[in-house]
Amino acid sequence: MTISGKYRGVGVVLRFGELFLKGKNRHLFEKALERDVRRAVAHRPELDVRREHGRIFVLGADDANLLAELGAVFGISSLSPIRFCAKELDEISSIAVEMAKAQLDGAKTFRISARRSDKRFRWTSADLGRLVGAEVARETGLNVDLEAFDLNVGIEIGPDWTFLWSTQRRGAGGLPAGTSGRAALLLSGGIDSPVAGHLMQKRGLHLSGIYFHAFPYTGDGVKAKVVELARILARRQGELLLHVVPFTALQECFRDNAPSKCLVVLYRRAMIRIAQQLAKRDDSPALITGESLGQVASQTVTNLSVIQEAAELPIFRPLIGFDKAETVALAESIGTYQTSILPHDDCCSLFVPKHPETKAHLPSIRSIEAKFEWQPLLQTAVEQTERIVVSSVKE
Ligand code: ATP
Ligand code: MG
Questions:
Q1: Residue 6 Cα, ligand 1 centroid: separation in angstroms?
Q2: Pocket (CB within 6 angstroms of ligand 1)
Q3: For a designed S-S bond to 7, which of 84, 88, 95, 189 qualifies (C-beta 3.0 to 4.6 A apart)?
């Protein structure tokens, strides 16, 4: 470690924001974030990732692709392309001038935002602002305005590095993968559930997936599609354990014994009961669905509450207040939309009339469930569930 700094060239600095709230856990969060950043840039072995003194650097490039990839990593509040240099005023000034010139574009005012945490460096932050600012003003004709500035050049003198930046982009926010624990996502082949999973990943949950497969009514094409969606979600966490539940026998049993109007609600209660058994085995204390209020018959307030009643675990429904168009836009931006819209059969509509019940009555649903034996079939479905470890990279 030398006073003049150990890094040279270009890179990207990542700022954390919300992580600072985490007190004692901060170290764990930083380590998780470093792991996620390494995963995001793993396909570029020429890059180096360093975590030091509460900063994460990606060293060796600052191109637009890299910024976009890092901009998608949860846990980062903002990021900037940076230039490292020696801890020398002349070099700092000349890079500051270059950076300001690169961004002139009609600008009239600027400011220098200097931070010096290395007290061995002889100039204070205020000195740096004044000295470097004078040089930038002289070379560019810009005026200093600390409040209403058109461009900003940042200088950071850390323990063993010095770098400058002049642009900043927003990060994805949220929390690093898995730092909030685990939850099981009911993952269908539709548009909504992958988006719901993504939003909960953003809050730091590590997902497993549960897919109810009604073969042969829903073909293996749907299963392949769900595996593909799981693969997209796995990018955020490395691997995703997908449970494929054989659901046909149970659905046929409900079809043969219950009024068709109530089937959707009965299926959904059965799904929840199976899902929570699988979730508990997987140490997941919560379920996630893509339900959105009023979207379809099973998603009225009344029906949601009847479905909820079958659950012991909390059910997170991050899309509950979303319009379909908002969900579609998110699905497009996270890359699941094109897979989700491939044609598929939906097991929830199997044997269901055109106008299913929208106001299920809990006592009636319970008395229907008490009339015939579906529990053994439910248990068989749990026991015969297939487990697939879906990796973010296709083998
Ligand atoms: P999606 O687009 O996610 O399929 P949807 O608008 O089609 O949702 P429903 O089919 O009623 O709505 O499903 C609501 C939620 O129930 C889904 O978001 C998903 O979480 C869960 N779900 C429905 N069908 C299945 C299935 N076959 N396997 C796993 N989960 C399912
Ligand atoms: Mg669906």
A1: 52
A2: 186-188, 190-193, 210-212, 289-291, 295-296, 298, 346-348
A3: 84
Pocket test for ligand 1, best of 185, 186, 188 (most atoms within 8 A of CB): 188
Range of the domain at 116: 9-170
Instruction: Tell me the residue type at 119.
Output: K
User: Are 32 and 114 found together in one domain?
Assistant: yes
Is 103 in the same domain as 201?
Answer: no
Q: Which helix (H) or strand (E) holds 244?
A: strand 239-246
Comparing CA positions, the residue from 207, 188, 190, 209 lying closest to residue 199 is 207
Q: What is the pLDDT of residue 166?
A: 97
Amino acid at 274: I
Q: Which of 220, 270, 249 is nearest to 388 (CA)?
A: 220
Residue 110 lies in a domain: yes
Return the percentage of the chain with pLDDT > 70, whole number.
Answer: 97
pTM of the model as a whole: 0.93
Q: Token pair for residue 210?
A: 């549960």
pLDDT of 53 reads 83
208 and 126 in a common domain: no
Residue 168 burial by Cβ neighbours in a 10 Å radius (0-12, 13-18, 19+): middle
* Cα 274 from Cα 211, distance rounded (Å): 11
